[in-house]
Design goal:
Length: about 280
Amino acid sequence: MPRVAAIHDLAGFGRCSLSVIMPLLSVMGVQACPVPTAVLSAHTGGLGDVRIKDLSDYLEDSLAHYGELDLNFDCIYTGFLNSPGQVDSCLSWADRYPDAFLVVDPVMGDNGKAYRTVTKELQDRMKELAKKADLITPNLTEGCILLNEPYPETQLSTQEAKSMLVRLAELGPEMVVITSAPLYGGGKVNIAYDRPRGSFWQVKSETVPGGYPGTGDMFAAILVGGLLRGDSLPIAMERSTRFLELAIKTTYGYGTDTRYGVLFEKVIPFLTEERMFSGYERL
C-alpha cells in the first residue's frame, strides 16, 4: 500500500485540507499519514475569527521520530504552510526521503490575490520548494506568483496556457497541473504538462455558480492517489475532475451554505469504483 506523508494544515470545520485529504486518499487505498502544519478551528474563508495553533516544531519532531522508526514514504505531499520557516522543514523531509514522489500544492491565493496570511517572504520560499518538486498543482493565481507575473485580465489562449505550463516546469518539476485555468472558449479547465513526455493535457468540466472551499485540496489529493496507484497523468486528472464535478453538483443541488464546503461524503463511493476514463484531451 502506498504511504504518503501529507504536510498540510488541519481545519476542524469547513471540509478542506487534511480533513478531506485523509479520507480521499484512504478510500483510494493509499495510507495517508498526517503531518499538520497548523490546527485551525475552521478554514479562513468567511467563518469568523478562526482560532489557529502553529505546529512548526512538530514538523521537525515528527521527521526525527519517523527516522528512528526507519519508516519509508512513497510520497511527500505538501500544502498550506503557516510560515516561511516551515518551508525549511518540508525541504528537510524531501532530503530525508529523496526517492519519494514530492508533490507541492503551493497554497498561496486565489482569484488573483494572495491569501492574507501568505507574506511575500513565504511566497519567495514557496518557490524554493516548488523547484524540488516532481509535481506542482497551483491554481492560476499561484502559478502567477511562482512566475512573478501579474494575474491575467483576460482568458488564456491555448498558446498562453502552454507557455505558462512550460515556464513553471522550467522551475524544476517534471509535471505541472494548473487547476481551473480560464481558457478562451472552454470556461475553467484543468490543464497539465508532462515535461519528460512533452505532452500537454486538458480536462473540461461542467460548472455551477458560486465557489466552495477545499476543492483544490480534493483535486490534488485524488490526483496524488491516482498517480500512486498507477494512473497516467491525464487519467488521474480526469478522475479528480469527474469526482469534483459530481461532488459540487450534488452540493449545489442541496443548496447548503457554500462556506461549509462540498458534500464529498455523499459521493465518495465514486472513488471505489473501477472506471474507464476517456474525456481528457490534448491541449
